[in-house]
Specification:
The chain is of the alpha+beta class. The protein is 50% helix and 19% strand. The strands form 4 sheets. Strands 10-22-21-20-11-18-19 form a 7-stranded mixed beta sheet, with helices on both faces. A 6-stranded antiparallel beta sheet has the order 2-1-3-9-4-7, with no helix packed on it. A 6-stranded antiparallel beta sheet has the order 12-17-16-15-14-13.
Length: 622
């Protein structure tokens, strides 16, 4: 809870503590004999000012700026009217309930986003340039095209360029979504925003910082955020028309009948004040945000964080959902999924591969070592050599073991059996003879297929997957999950373009959601109608750029939140129709003199209570 919300809560509690004893005393007759003015007036004025001074201030300020008719103005004139007809407790209660609703609304959306650029930690702070044999840190903006920069192990690549010296694995997951680090060596292109692995790299820059990949991603996120359609608050829109109508109606009601009929002015002024109290949109200003707050609360119970009521509304209209693959539909963790030996036992093949990879820190090597149940003694290894872009050559127990990709087998002229399974394949040869293959893959989440089926059952028309992985990997995942479409080999800019294409094909009442978990997904999360991020494993940038966060990374929760959103909108619509219908009826009766202040209280507070109770039903959504 923010400092501002804590102050508002303190004001609500203080006002209620003062008001309710006064309210009880008033209705128990304990204030009889006290002067109506100024004693009772002042007693109720104290809690009123405590809870409503900011509403009065906003109304006066908006009037001074030419914005007369809004909900603040109507709240003021309605409660002033209640004071005018000596219904002091009504004035305080209306303002108190209004502020409680405002607090709920504020709390529901207090996860407002900070500047996107502050969240994007892929932006490098410096670049290393070698001068007189020493490395000097400079601002990436100061590096020109053609300059030589040095990237140490663990540092983020500051600018796009070509490797002229060194070999290393670079983590590109922040940009492409690929969870497998890429190996780069002399002559290979390298893009900014990646993280260098264990090797020292010298890179000749090919772009200035403003044109680099990381700068473009920052620009994409910022521009995408500006394109996001913001749903204007219903009450503000409603008050633009409702407030001037009822205020003008109240003025006419107080002036015209006495002038026309000659009746006493006091009777019609009292009716006008009752008219104003009835017209106060308390039921709406409380029940509408509270209905959405209930929906957000129900989503929280299901382990889903929704950052605002407008996103619940958008979710109820969602017809297309787009998924990033790695970490969203798959676990984002590499494991051995298949062992295929030739003329030897599975555990022996795995042991030899694990020994060969024992000195490597690559995620693929880590997966092989983790899968091996044998104790790996490095004393058995006499010599290890890494072959860039191919694999590893090692002498183990006096035999030569080769472990790597198909390029390694071809280069060593070793006949091998090609493995077409989904994932990364390690081919193993011992003393020049093919020994088998091991498949390492990012496993599909067990609940992913059920999530897709559930979404289609919920009325989602199209399911799409975007990935930075290869075409064959994307096709295999899409086929296994039953997705309608997939697009592979995509960079962040490509993903935004694909989402733009899909958005262009939707009607005005159809919405698109994107589900992702990486920093590279932040631009797309911002551009989609609804951005959904994985909260447990997702990056901070993705979580902040998203509108909805799945706290346990379970995609099955998406269909649940759609059901909650649709029920929320249904209950909110019920409250709007009910509140307006009751108020319209009692407004007419009040104008004709058939409704007294008790009817006004029911039209205001009574309708509000009923609407609130109806709104709370959202919390019970299963």
């Amino acid at each position: 809870m923010t400092k501002k919300q804590k102050m508002m809560l303190a004001r609500i509690i203080l006002s209620a503590v003062i008001f309710f004893p006064l309210f009880i005393s008033e209705h128990m007759g304990k204030m009889e004999g006290l002067p109506e003015f100024p004693v009772i007036f002042v007693l109720f004025l104290v809690p009123y000012l405590i809870i409503g001074w900011d509403i009065i201030f906003k109304a006066v300020r908006n009037i001074s700026h030419g914005q007369v008719f809004d909900e603040n103005f109507l709240m003021c004139i309605a409660t002033f009217g209640a004071f005018g007809v000596q219904e002091y407790e009504e004035a305080v209660a209306v303002m108190l309930f209004y502020q409680v609703g405002e607090l709920f609304q504020s709390y529901a959306v207090n996860r407002s986003r900070q500047s996107i650029s502050e969240l994007m930690d892929i932006c490098p702070e410096y670049a290393n340039i070698e001068e007189d044999g020493e490395l000097k840190q400079v601002d990436p903006d100061d590096v020109e095209v053609g300059d030589i920069i040095v990237i140490k192990p663990g540092e983020r690549v500051p600018l796009d360029g070509i490797v002229i010296s060194g070999s290393s694995f670079v983590d590109t997951s922040a940009l492409t979504g690929e969870s497998v680090p890429r190996q780069v060596s002399d002559g290979d292109e390298i893009i900014s925003g990646c993280v260098n692995g264990s090797g020292l790299l010298k890179v000749r820059t090919t772009k200035e910082f403003d044109d680099s990949t990381v700068a473009k991603i920052l620009e994409l996120v910022e521009n995408a955020s500006s394109k996001k359609a913001h749903v204007e608050n219903f009450i503000t829109k409603f008050a633009r028309y409702y407030t001037p109508i009822v205020v003008i109606g109240a003025v006419l009601l107080a002036i015209l009948p006495p002038l026309i009929t000659g009746e006493a002015w006091g009777i019609w002024i009292e009716r006008a004040c009752i008219f104003l109290v009835i017209s106060c949109p308390c039921a709406l200003v409380i029940s509408v945000p509270l209905g959405f707050f209930g929906g957000i609360g129900a989503a929280s119970k299901a382990g889903v964080l929704v950052k605002g009521s407008n996103y619940l509304e958008a979710l109820s209209k969602m017809t297309t959902i787009v998924f990033d693959k790695t970490g969203t539909l798959t676990k984002g963790e590499f494991t051995v999924t298949g062992i295929y030996p030739k003329n030897m036992a599975e555990d022996k093949l795995l042991e030899m591969a694990a020994l060969a990879e024992s000195y490597s820190e690559h995620p693929i090597a880590a997966a092989v070592k983790k899968a091996c149940s044998q104790e790996l003694s490095t004393e058995r290894i006499k010599d290890t050599k890494e072959i860039p872009g191919h694999g590893i050559r090692a002498e183990i127990d006096g035999t030569i073991v080769l472990a790597g990709n198909d390029k390694l087998m071809k280069e060593e002229n070793i006949p091998y059996e090609e493995n077409h399974e989904m994932g990364t394949v390690i081919y193993v040869a011992i003393d020049g003879k093919y020994a088998g293959s091991i498949v390492i893959a990012d496993r599909i989440k067990p609940e992913a297929k059920e999530a897709i089926l559930s979404l289609k059952a919920s009325g989602v028309k199209e399911t799409v997957m975007l990935t930075g992985d290869k075409e064959d990997v994307g096709r295999a995942v899409a086929k296994e999950l039953g997705l309608d479409k997939f697009y592979a080999n995509l960079l962040p800019g490509d993903k935004v373009d694909k989402v733009e294409e899909l958005l262009a094909g939707l009607s005005k009442d159809e919405k698109l959601a994107f589900v992702g978990d990486g920093i590279n997904d932040a631009p797309v999360l911002s551009r989609a109608d609804i951005g959904i991020a994985m909260g447990s494993m997702g990056s901070d940038a993705a979580i902040e750029a998203a509108d909805v966060v799945l706290m346990d990374d379970n995609p099955l929760k998406i269909s649940a939140i759609i059901r909650i959103a649709r029920r929320t909108l249904k209950i909110v619509s019920q409250n709007i129709v009910f509140a307006l219908a009751v108020k319209a009826i009692i407004l007419v009766l009040g104008a004709l003199g058939y409704a007294n202040m008790w009817a006004a209280v029911f039209a205001d507070v009574g309708v509000s209570v009923i609407a609130i109770l109806n709104a709370m039903r959202v919390l019970n959504t299963k």
